Amino acid sequence: MPWNTLPEPPQELIDQLIEKLSVSPVVARLLARLGFDDPDQADEFLNCSINRLDDPSRISHLDDAVGRISRAIDQRQDILVFGDYDVDGVTAVALFVLVLRHLGARPRYAVPRRLSEGYGLSHEALDRVLKDGNPDLFVTLDCGTNSVDQIARLRKLGIDVIIADHHRSKEGREADATIVNPHVYDGENEPWTHLCAVGLAFKLAHGLRRLRRAQGDPNAQSLRLVDLLDLVAMGTIADLVPMRRENRIYTRFGLQMLGQRKRAGIHALLESCNISAGQPLNPTDVSFRLSPRINASGRLDDASIAVELLLSSDGQQCAELANQLNEFNKERQEKERLVTQDALRMIEEGGFSSDPAFVLYGEHWHPGVVGIVAGKLSRQFGRPCVVLGKEGDALAKGSGRGVHSLNLIDILTHCKDLLQNWGGHPMAVGVSLHCKDIDTFRARLIETMHRECGGLEHTDEVPVDISVWLPVEQINQELLEDIETLSPFGEGNPEPVFGVRAVQLPFPPEVFGEGNYRFYLPAAQQRRGLCVVAWRKAAKLPPASQPIDIALRIFCNFYNGRQYAQAELIDWRPCG
Predict the structure, then answer these.
(1) How confident is the model at residue 132, as a pLDDT?
(2) Average pLDDT over the chain, rounded to an integer
(3) What's the pLDDT at 461?
(4) How far apart are CA 47 and CA 424, in angstroms?
(5) Pure H helices in 75-196
(6) What b/e sequence results for 57-86 when a residue is b if at least 16 CB atoms lie within 10 Å of its CB, and e otherwise?
(7) Which of 93, 240, 251, 280: disulfide with 83, CB 3.0–4.6 Å?
(8) Residue 170: band (very low, low, confident or very high) from pLDDT cuts 50, 70, 90
(9) Are residues 431 and 473 in the same domain?
(10) Measured distance CA(14)–CA(16) in Å, rounded
């Protein structure tokens, strides 16, 4: 794969950051590359604090929403909380139901059943949830902005509606509801602009607690918002929102709360992932261990199982639900493996490999895994990818994943006449269309890519971006402690990749597992040296006793109650 060295920041700026922040030269370089040319802003980034969360009342219409919810609590009205079936929607629903219960309400909750109702607030989902009676107040989380017809149906029934959502509007008209959505009403540079649904649910909870405390509600006095940050961190990491400003605060402190295991459902989920008590958690643990299990219930069955896990305080019930999610996840992994194999074969044999974007369709592909497959293919080939399965007799339904250089929502706008339903984020979308229109949709998408962005000069391999080149002796525990000050990593704050030149391995790499290998770099603080692991790269083993360049990331490993530095090999190449 190609290697890129990121542009070197001005030395004057690096020296200024070192002097004013007392950070190492490596941290100063990384801060400068993140765009921090003001030491005060960089200091706020490094030393983020709960106290720096912005006033929730600054979000448009939030106070109106909070006032209506408060009246519903006082009047003991029937409140229904509805969220989407992914991690963001599930955690948002769980958080807000917990808050309402603490304040004395008895809310109902619902999430869509993916296979029969689709995503978001569909008419099919409404048919089901309204069978138990019409609520007085309907609160949607992670959906609703583009559900204009469904909201009109609720309003005709005399139901008040509050929407807390972060999806961009594509309808061109607003729903008849109180809408809390920064992308609809607020500027693009507020501290809370890029919150996901669970972040907005936390903002609602913050505003509601403040109002209820002012009204003398004793339940509000005992409501600890910090205890909810475990849920906020999970949804924020899973939804790939920028890891800056308030999202960074939520995630940093939420990961600490997750590690404390105060919630019975979280404890059971961590146990099912074989994460030891006392082990510090990082975004990777959420992305690749916790999130897939929560998502699996919504992809294959009913996401309300995951909501109930997060709401329950019964340890035995939580253990049973976590085991159930574990089984769903195993089933999901097998379906995903089969669909990925078919999709790769289709790219190779179908003549799609040179297309600037992929549209792939399999009649028997499970709709619950196509989004994961689209993400894998998008990362592997460095181009947008839409993967579709069949729904019913005539519809194809699936998900698209993008690349950082374009906005998928903008691209799909040029294809909207072919789509029955669509929406999402710049990097991730859901779509449905008639099967007969798939070829036309593919041609239109490719034509749009060429016209709007020159087709994007994609390669079949995503390049390695080297953040800093270092001598081998600096790849050690001290470097790990330095870069930990920049965590948590994610969108908008990528984990740094370090380059090391002219490394000579004294012994051949040790191959283990299914195509993995490891070797050791000299490190004074570790007897055997620093372990470097290469996952699924054994088809290309580096030579021993010959100089090579390596690209790696360094992270903290936890084993047998000990923490130590370890590295992951991203790529190697012959020296020079």
Answers:
(1) 92
(2) 91
(3) 57
(4) 32
(5) 87-102, 114-117, 123-129, 148-156, 182-185
(6) eebebbbebbebbbebbeeebbbbbbbbbb
(7) 93
(8) confident
(9) no
(10) 5
Q: How much is the average pLDDT of 53-68?
A: 96
404 lies in the same domain as 548: no
109: helix, coil or strand?
A: strand
Contact 190, 57 (CB under 8 A): no
pLDDT at 31: 95
How far, in Å, are 100, 203, 207 from residue 210 at the CA level? 14, 11, 5
Q: Give the model's pLDDT for residue 523.
A: 63
Give residue 452's pLDDT: 79
Calpha distance 77→357 (Å, rounded): 49
Q: What is the pLDDT of residue 562?
A: 76
Do 229 and 247 touch, CB atoms closer than 8 A? no
Rounded Cα distance between 371 and 401, Å, is 7
Are residues 75 and 176 both part of a single domain? yes
Q: Does residue 15 form part of some domain? A: no
Is residue 522 very low, low, confident or very high in pLDDT (cuts 50, 70, 90)? confident
Residues 216-262: tens digit of each pLDDT: 999 999 999 999 999 999 999 998 899 999 999 999 999 999 999 99
Give the separation between CA 27 and CA 407, rounded to whole angstroms.
31
Strand partners, 391: 395
Q: Is 562 in a helix, a strand, or coil? A: strand
* 367 within 8 A of 319, measured Cβ to Cβ: no
Q: How far apart are CA 576 and CA 573, in angstroms?
A: 8
pLDDT of residue 251: 96
Q: Do residues 325 and 293 make contact, with C-beta atoms less than 8 angstroms apart?
A: yes
Classify residue 289 by its DSSP letter. I
- Per-residue pLDDT at 458: 47
Contacts 24+ apart (CB under 8 A), 41-44: 42/17
Nearest Cα to Cα of residue 510 among 476, 546, 558, 544: 544
Token duo for residue 403? 């690349």
At 431, list the tokens: 């779509």
Contact (CB, 8 A) for 367 and 389 = yes
**In a shared domain, residues 356 and 319:** no
Instruction: Select from 200, 193, 292, 309 the least CA-distant residue to 238.
Output: 292
| More confidently predicted of 543 and 453 | 543
Domain count within the chain: 3
Instruction: Give the H/E segment covering residue 570.
Output: strand 562-574
CB atoms within 10 A of CB 392: 9
Co-location of 378 and 270 in the same domain: no
DSSP 8-state secondary structure symbol assigned to residue 287: I
**Together in a domain, 297 and 377:** no
Strand partners, 569: 552
- Kindly report the CA angle at 137 between 134 and 143, in degrees rounded to 5? 100
270 and 138, same domain (yes or no):
yes
